[in-house]
From TrEMBL:
Primary location recorded for the protein, binned into one broad class: cytoplasm
Lineage: Eukaryota, Metazoa, Chordata, Craniata, Vertebrata
Protein name: Aspartate aminotransferase
Coiled coil: none
EC annotation from Swiss-Prot or TrEMBL: 2.6.1.1
Length: 412
């Protein structure tokens, strides 16, 4: 028989974070802990269906006016409008001036991908394969691949994390913006930076905006954790809203995976803020073409859940309460882990655990210490030392803290 036409296909390595979860599942040790996965867990270590989501799902089931017709290519109108409203704020001048548009997408990833594809085709002239795209160092690993797959050939890191001081390298970041070619694209984490858990302060965002405006750099916000960082939707959207108030045209990719716990429904939104209604209309007309050849039109269930919740004042309040429950549990785990490490006298400083925000903490553990935790302690985390705070529970905190202590004291 002739060889397979696929004989030359190289085997690609698995995606690290999903591989980690698969390894965790196979591990038979009763002490095992998964600190790798990027999803919320309750104090029982279980996924959480938000009570408001449960309620809205029931409303949808009982609503006989709903059917399974195709949605419009750009998505459910009430979802798109409400999603953009929570990103930009109720009194956003851009919304009032009718210069905001949006595209319902398959998760935050889909929003990034549609935005990237559009920018490559149409931003600042057409066919922008050579336009530099800057991503923070480090960043969520998919940023590089999404922009590369959209055709961008020059993807560059910008300074972000200062490992020595375990905080933001604001000077390095500003210097990189100063020296970036005009019209470069910058991917900015709106809040709860993944993986470092470290965001610029409002004063630092102001400095960033000033340089970006002077150097004509394009802000593409990635907002995957609104509400999760501080427990407040408004506080977590501060940077995006500040940029809009400064007159920027921008994109904001929103994910409802984390703050609604709708990971597998794939519900996201790409908010487009333009100079005026006419510009936004033309941009959306091109995005519609891109969506048509990508997924043709989006799924409805997740978008309906979000739209129903956001458009009812009572359900909206209930949702904000649910988000706060998740954010508060993360904050509690942060302080509990820090106090245990400090009580054990674990070498190093651990204040960064409580200073960082969002789901993740960049512990500062090195790859050898991570390997020790996985192999000897059955505690799974990314090689970068990033841990998901939601993997911690009141039952495993002592074990995790003691294991980190051992890893840090035994292995340099
Ligand atoms: C920074 C960042 N952006 C985007 C996403 C994508 O979210 P979604 O699962 O909605 O595609 C994630 C998810 O982990 C993320 O951490």
């Amino acid at each position: 028989m002739a060889a397979s036409i696929f004989a030359a296909v190289p085997l690609s390595p698995p995606v690290a974070v999903f591989k980690l979860t698969a390894d965790f599942r196979e591990d038979g040790d009763s002490r095992k802990v998964n600190l790798g996965v990027g999803a919320y867990r309750t104090d029982e270590g279980q996924p959480w269906v938000l009570p408001v989501v449960k309620k809205v799902k029931q409303l949808i089931v009982n609503d006989n006016s709903l059917n399974h017709e195709y949605l419009p290519i750009l998505g459910l109108p009430e979802f798109r409008a409400n999603a953009s409203r929570i990103a930009l704020g109720d009194d956003s001048p851009a919304i009032k001036e009718n210069r905001v548009g949006s595209v319902q997408s398959l998760g935050g990833t889909g929003a990034l991908r549609i935005g990237a594809e559009f920018l490559r085709r149409w931003y600042n002239g057409n066919n922008n394969t050579a336009t530099p795209v800057y991503v923070s160092s480090p960043t969520w690993e998919n940023h590089n691949s999404v922009f590369m797959d959209a055709g961008f050939k020059d993807i560059r890191p910008y300074h972000y994390w200062d490992a020595a001081k375990r905080g933001l390298d604001i000077q390095g970041l500003l210097n990189d913006m100063e020296s970036a070619p005009e019209s470069s694209i910058f991917i900015l984490h709106a809040c709860a930076h993944n993986p470092t858990g470290t965001d610029p302060s409002p004063e630092q965002w102001k400095q960033i905006a000033a340089v970006m405006k002077r150097r004509s750099l394009f802000p593409f916000f990635d907002s995957a954790y609104q509400g999760f960082a501080s427990g407040s939707l408004d506080k977590d959207a501060w940077a995006v809203r500040f940029f809009v108030s400064e007159g920027f045209e921008l994109f904001c990719a929103q994910s409802f995976s984390k703050n609604f716990g709708l990971y597998n429904e794939r519900v996201g939104n790409l908010t487009v803020v333009g100079k005026d209604a006419d510009n936004v209309k033309r941009v959306l007309s091109q995005m519609e073409k891109i969506v048509r050849t990508t997924w043709s039109n989006p799924p409805s269930q997740g978008a309906r859940i979000v739209a129903t919740t956001l458009s009812s004042p009572e359900l909206f309040d209930e949702w904000k309460g649910n988000v706060k429950t998740m954010a508060d549990r993360v904050l509690l785990m942060r302080s509990e882990l820090r106090s245990r490490l400090e009580a054990l006298g674990t070498p190093g400083t651990w204040n960064h655990i409580t200073e960082q925000i969002g789901m993740f903490s960049f512990t500062g553990l090195n790859p050898k210490q991570v390997e020790y935790l996985i192999k000897e302690k059955h505690i799974y985390l990314l090689a970068s030392g990033r841990i998901n705070m939601c993997g911690l529970t009141t039952k495993n905190l002592d074990y995790v803290a003691k294991s980190i202590h051992e890893a840090v004291t035994k292995i340099q």
